[in-house]
C-alpha cells in the first residue's frame, strides 16, 4: 500500500470516529495505561473499499509482462503470477472481464513507442470490468461495483490499477463498449479532425472489416459519403454491406488497382489507411485532387525487424503536389482532448441502434474462443493472420465468457 493511501486511511478513521484505538494509540498521554496494540490501518475501512458484493479478492493474480523486447509477441511476453495491486489515493482497482487486442500490442512489446522503457513492463491497452477497490479521492467519483472501461497501459492482467480520471463508466460489462475505446475513438477522431468529410465525397477504408475499419466505414457513411471497403474474404465483404459499405472489394478475388481505376477514375477524396506497404502505395496513387490520406497504422510491417514494410516514397512529394493532396498521420494519444466527446457520441449512437460494434471472440480461430490470459497469444496470432472479423477480444474467465 502506498504511503499516501496509508495516511489517507488514518485521516478518515479519525475524522469519522472509526478506529478509536488508532486515535488513542497515536495521541495517548504518557500517564495513560497502555492499551492493547492495534493495527494502524482500520481494516473495516479497507474491506469496505476493497471488496465486491462480499466476494474475496485473491492475494495473487495472473498478468502478462514484456520480459524481452521483440516484435514477436510470443518471444517478448510471458505469463506470470504476481500480487494483486492496491489502488492509490486517486486510483481504481478493476477486476478485468474483457481485454482488447490491438495491432499496436506488437509495437509496444518491441519497445517502439518509448525506447527509454526497459523490460520487464506491463502490456495491453484496454479493458472493461468491475471496480473492486477505490482510493479515497477516487471514491468521490466511483464506488465499488461500478462497471468501468479504460484505455491505460497494463490491461493484460486479471486485475488492473488505473487512475480514476481515466476510467469510463459504462452501462454494462459488454465487449462492444470495449471496442469503442481505442478502435472506435481512432476512427471517430481521425475522420472528424483530419478527414474533413463532406456529403457526397468518396472514402476508401483499408482493412475495413477489422477492429477500427468497421467504425471508419460507419462514420463515413453517416457523413453522407460513398464508402469503399477493402477486405480479404467474401464473408467480410458481406459484413461490410450490412454496415453500409457501398463497394466492398475482396482484394483476394478482384484486381484491386484495376477496380479503382475503372470504377473511380476521378480518384478518392479520403483514404483511411492502416495496412502500409503496397496498399499504401496504391492509396497514394488513388488520391483525387485535394485528396486526404490519413495514416493510422501500417500493420503489414509490424512483425518485421524495422516495423515497416517498404513503400515507393521517392516520388511522393511530386504525387502530392500534382494533386494538391495531403497526407497526415494520426496517433490517438495526441488527440486526448477530443476523446471524451468521441466516446459520448459513440455510446449515444450505440444505444440508439445506430452503431455496430462487431466483436471477434475467436470462434473461427484455431483452438476456439479466447478465454483467459493464456489465450492472448492465440488472439494476437489470429489478428495478424487476417482472420479476424471486427474487434478481437479475450474473456477473462468462464464467468465473463458466459456473458458473450
TrEMBL record:
It holds the Pfam family ADH_N. It comes from the Eukaryota. The keyword Oxidoreductase applies. InterPro entries: ADH-like_C (IPR013149), ADH-like_N (IPR013154), ER (IPR020843), GroES-like_sf (IPR011032), NAD(P)-bd_dom_sf (IPR036291), Quin_OxRdtase/zeta-crystal_CS (IPR002364), Zn-ADH-like_protein (IPR051397). CDD domains: Mgc45594_like. Residues 72-394 form the Enoyl reductase (ER) domain. The keyword Kinase does not apply. Keywords: Oxidoreductase. GO terms for molecular function: 15-oxoprostaglandin 13-reductase [NAD(P)+] activity; zinc ion binding. Its EC number is 1.3.1.48. One of its GO terms (cellular component) is mitochondrion. It is an enzyme of class 1 (oxidoreductase). Belongs to the zinc-containing alcohol dehydrogenase family. Quinone oxidoreductase subfamily. This is 15-oxoprostaglandin 13-reductase.
Amino acid at each position: 500500500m502506498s504511503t499516501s493511501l496509508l495516511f489517507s486511511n488514518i485521516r478518515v478513521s479519525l475524522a469519522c470516529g472509526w478506529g478509536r484505538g488508532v486515535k488513542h494509540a497515536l495521541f495517548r498521554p504518557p500517564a495513560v495505561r497502555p492499551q492493547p496494540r492495534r493495527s494502524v490501518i482500520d481494516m473495516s475501512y479497507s474491506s469496505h473499499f476493497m471488496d465486491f458484493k462480499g466476494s474475496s479478492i485473491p492475494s495473487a493474480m495472473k498478468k502478462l509482462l514484456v520480459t524481452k523486447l521483440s516484435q514477436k509477441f510470443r518471444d517478448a511476453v510471458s505469463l506470470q503470477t504476481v500480487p494483486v495491486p492496491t489502488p492509490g489515493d486517486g486510483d481504481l482497482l478493476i477486476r478485468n472481464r474483457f481485454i482488447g487486442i490491438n495491432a499496436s500490442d506488437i509495437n509496444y512489446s518491441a519497445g517502439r513507442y518509448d525506447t527509454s522503457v526497459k523490460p520487464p513492463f506491463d502490456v495491453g491497452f484496454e479493458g472493461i470490468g468491475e471496480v473492486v477497490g477505490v482510493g479515497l479521492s477516487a471514491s468521490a467519483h466511483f464506488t465499488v461495483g461500478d462497471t468501468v472501461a479504460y484505455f491505460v497501459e497494463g490491461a493484460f492482467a486479471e486485475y488492473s490499477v488505473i487512475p480514476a480520471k481515466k476510467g469510463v463508466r459504462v452501462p454494462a460489462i459488454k465487449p462492444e463498449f470495449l471496442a469503442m475505446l481505442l478502435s472506435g475513438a481512432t476512427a471517430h477522431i481521425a475522420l472528424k479532425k483530419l478527414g474533413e468529410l463532406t456529403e457526397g465525397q468518396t472514402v476508401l477504408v483499408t482493412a475495413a472489416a477489422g477492429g477500427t475499419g468497421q467504425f471508419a466505414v460507419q462514420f463515413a457513411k453517416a457523413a453522407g459519403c460513398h464508402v469503399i471497403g477493402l477486405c480479404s474474404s467474401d464473408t467480410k465483404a458481406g459484413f461490410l454491406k450490412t454496415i453500409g459499405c457501398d463497394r466492398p472489394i475482396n482484394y483476394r478475388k478482384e484486381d484491386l488497382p484495376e477496380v479503382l481505376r475503372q470504377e473511380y477514375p476521378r480518384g478518392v477524396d479520403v483514404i483511411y489507411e492502416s495496412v502500409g506497404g503496397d496498399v499504401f502505395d496504391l492509396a497514394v496513387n488513388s488520391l483525387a485532387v485535394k485528396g486526404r490520406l490519413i495514416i493510422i497504422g501500417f500493420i503489414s510491417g509490424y512483425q518485421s525487424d524495422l516495423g515497416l514494410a517498404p513503400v515507393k516514397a521517392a516520388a511522393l512529394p511530386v504525387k502530392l503536389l500534382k494533386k494538391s493532396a495531403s497526407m497526415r498521420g494520426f496517433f490517438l494519444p495526441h488527440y486526448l482532448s477530443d476523446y471524451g466527446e468521441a466516446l459520448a457520441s459513440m455510446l449515444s449512437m450505440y444505444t440508439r441502434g445506430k452503431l455496430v460494434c462487431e466483436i471477434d471472440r475467436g470462434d473461427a480461430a484455431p483452438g476456439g474462443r479466447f478465454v483467459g490470459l493464456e489465450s492472448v497469444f492465440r488472439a494476437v496470432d489470429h489478428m495478424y493472420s487476417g482472420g479476424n472479423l471486427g474487434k478481437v477480444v479475450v474473456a477473462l474467465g468462464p464467468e465473463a465468457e458466459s456473458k458473450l
